[in-house]
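May I ask for whichever protein you like with its backbone structure tokens?
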Amino acid sequence: MRTRRRLLGPALAVLLAAACAGAPGPGGTPGGQAVPAPEWRVGDRWVFRRTALGGAPAVVTHEVVRAMPNGYVVRLRGLAGDVTREWTRELALVAETASDGAVGRYAPPLQEFTWPLPFGHQWSQAFTYTDARGGGRYSSQWRSGPAVEPVDVLAGRFYTIRVERWAGTQRLETYWYNARVRYWVRLEDYLRGYVEELAEFAPWGS
């Protein structure tokens, strides 16, 4: 079974060709072991189809362009302008930089995941977000799903752990993370109003 998958035609053909992609699920059995932390490498690339409310679908590529002892730099291409994200080794988000140089920064880094990631887990964090317009103090809560969830995307079927981010009673984001591709295969961003689903994963060196 190959790790790399390409979008070779109609979505149905992709789904049929990669129906077993990602099996078995992260942690093996539903509600089983915690999911280990991933290690990214320069050249790892995930290609997504992004669908925004009221807009045409776009192809967005997330690529690791730098790996350091204390974290990673990932560049997003295919938007109106490139976006660069800085992550810690634990995949906490440090900053986002737009193509015009505008920077949004989190202090402490935003803890989108906790490792090893167990099923049915909750965690919370208070943080400061600052950008050119100013800053503020915020708090978020995260919840992981109780069991492995199969998710069908353009790249095939993946067995995932779902992670939801909340602010009080408002759900902000939902990720479906897969250990085999070391990334999420689907993201629903309720604040910015878009959905991303994986179309291709190309690890470094491929």
The chain has one helix and 13 strands. The first strand starts at residue 45 and ends at 52. Residues 49 and 59 are 5 Å apart (CA to CA). Confidence is low (pLDDT under 50) at residues 1-31.
